[in-house]
Specification:
It is a single chain. With 106 residues, the chain is an all-alpha fold. It has one domain. Helix content is 81%, strand content 0%. It starts with a helix and ends with a helix. InterPro entries: EmrE-like, Small_drug/metabolite_transptr, Small_multidrug_res.
């Protein structure tokens, strides 16, 4: 169940990051409300995952999925470019997350 909580927390992390861009410095009400709610939900579900997972593994995977999801969706929503170096970095993040997952034994 911890891995499901971690996946849910990661979805909230991506929504939080994308929402932060939409707030325009927290000057827009509804994007700001959305961003604050998704941040709280992400931290809450991450805390549920960390009841079982090691904090180093859980946090690293949470931020890794959040980073990759934010860049990919940022390219779709905000038309940001995905370059070769970004793809290399994504690959390293995915490889690191997989190794952490295997090393955790959970």
């Amino acid at each position: 169940m911890a891995w499901i909580y971690l996946l849910i927390a990661s979805v909230f992390e991506v929504a939080f990051a994308l929402g932060t861009n939409a707030t325009h410095g927290f000057t827009r009400l509804w994007p700001s409300v959305f961003t604050l709610l998704t941040a709280a939900a992400g931290i809450f579900t991450l805390s549920l995952a960390l009841r079982t997972l090691d904090v180093g593994v859980g946090y690293t995977i949470w931020t890794g999925i959040g980073s990759i999801g934010t860049v990919v969706l940022g390219s779709v929503i905000y038309k940001e470019r995905i370059t070769g170096p970004k793809v290399v970095a994504f690959s390293a993040i995915i490889a690191g997350a997989l190794v952490l997952r295997l090393a955790s034994g959970g």
